């Protein structure tokens, strides 16, 4: 079996270092007897490739990306643990607008149907 190129090994090492539990759970924060542990949704992907030409020239490359969005936090108070989800305000506003548009289009269709009957 062929050995992996040094660049590929470095790439894998960096990816492993990025994808740790510390990316999902933040450092606990304690204040007034309440401990909060933030949590995130992590998404990642990567790819790479290499090739060689007919005259012996070759090349390769790779890439890796990670994104994190807040998911919420665990709140620990008096020995009880509860989950507090994060509110994505942009998504909430978008969904409200979408529901409003659907409601207006439905109302318009109902009004048109009623006026045709008369």
Notable traits:
alpha+beta, 3 helices, single chain
Write the layout of secondary structure elements.
Elements: H1 6-18, H2 21-24, E1 29-31, E2 34-52, E3 58-77, E4 80-85, H3 89-117
Overview of the structural elements:
By secondary structure, this protein is α+β, with helices and mostly antiparallel strands. The mean pLDDT is 84. It has a 4-stranded antiparallel beta sheet with strand order 1-2-3-4, with helices on one face. The longest helix has 29 residues, at 89-117. The protein folds into 2 domains: 1-86, no CATH class; 87-118. The termini are far apart. A hairpin with a 5-residue loop joins strand 2 and strand 3 (58-77). Helix content is 39%, strand content 41%. The relative contact order is 0.13. It has 3 helices and 4 strands, in the order H-H-E-E-E-E-H.
How is the main sheet built?
Answer: 4 strands, antiparallel
| Helix/strand class | alpha+beta
Low-pLDDT residue intervals, each spanning 5 or more residues:
none
Beta strands, count: 4
Instruction: Give the strand content.
Output: 35-45%
Indicate how many domains the architecture comprises.
2
* Rg calc: 26 Å
Oligomeric composition of the shown chains: single chain
Overall 3D shape: flat
Number of helices, counting only DSSP H or I runs of 4 residues or more:
3
Order of helices and strands: HHEEEEH
- End-to-end span in angstroms? 81 Å
Name the helicity range.
25-40%
Strand order of the largest sheet: 1-2-3-4
Q: Mean pLDDT, as a whole number?
A: 84
